[in-house]
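Long-time lurker, first post.

We've been arguing in lab meeting about whether zinc ion would sit comfortably in this protein at all. Half the group thinks yes, half thinks no, and nobody has a model to point at. So I'm putting the question to the forum: if I give you the sequence and the SMILES, can you give me back a predicted structure of the complex? Inputs are below. Any interpretation is welcome too.
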Amino acid sequence: MKELSDQEWLRYNRQIVLRQFDIEGQEALKNAAVLVIGAGGLGCAAAQYLAVAGVGRLTLVDDDVVELSNLQRQVLHQDADLGRLKVDSAADSLRAANPWLEVATHAARADEALLRSLLPQHQLVLDGTDNLDTRQLVNRLCFEARVPLVSAAVIRMEGQLSVFTYGEDEPCYACLSRLMGGGVLSCVEAGVLAPMVGVMGALQALEAVKLLAHMGRSPRGKLLLVDGMTLSTRELALPKAPDCPVCGKGPA
Ligand SMILES: [Zn+2]
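Top reply:
Settle the argument with this. Predicted structure of the protein with zinc ion, as tokens:
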């Protein structure tokens, strides 16, 4: 267990004074490794807060390069990064934001082999991809490894957030997606307003920090819906599907 240096103590003082967080919370972050799937809008927004908050190690997985239409919401990439790998561009921005942070990058698709090799070295996974197959795969492997998953999605003016810690009676992402049906629109087709991405990514970072520091209450097994048009939220309890192919007994 690595302890905080004097410099880090000063750097993170405004969080350390939070009584529920304290020095133990800060040290928990310093010793944590978080796997971030996707260096797009949600990944950028969540990773930048994890970096400045003092998470010790971030691993970024994304095989895309930065395009002009990304810059409207993917805040770790800038004009000078056009054409670069997103993981390289994001890693540079994150290191600049906090020199104490270690960043590892994988310019690759989040496939089963890569995820299986990475999961055991991480305490938590953040998923912000817009690909349903990847989301299902990440959920299945997180369930098998019992690594908590903070999942978010955002489209138009609507955001969703769920936390899966895979306890005995908790639902998983596959239970949720059965409820929602198969179709997932991407923001390429439907559009998305920039601050909505920031809001949902920041919420992902908040839930990640709470889980790592063992503080507060996590919306485990719930679906938080955020409507940016009216700035209202709804929290739905997610039922565990008894025949869920991942966390249940599978189809009868
Ligand atoms: Zn399930």
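For your lab meeting: The chain has a mean pLDDT of 94. The chain has one domain: 32-237. Whichever side wins, do check it experimentally.
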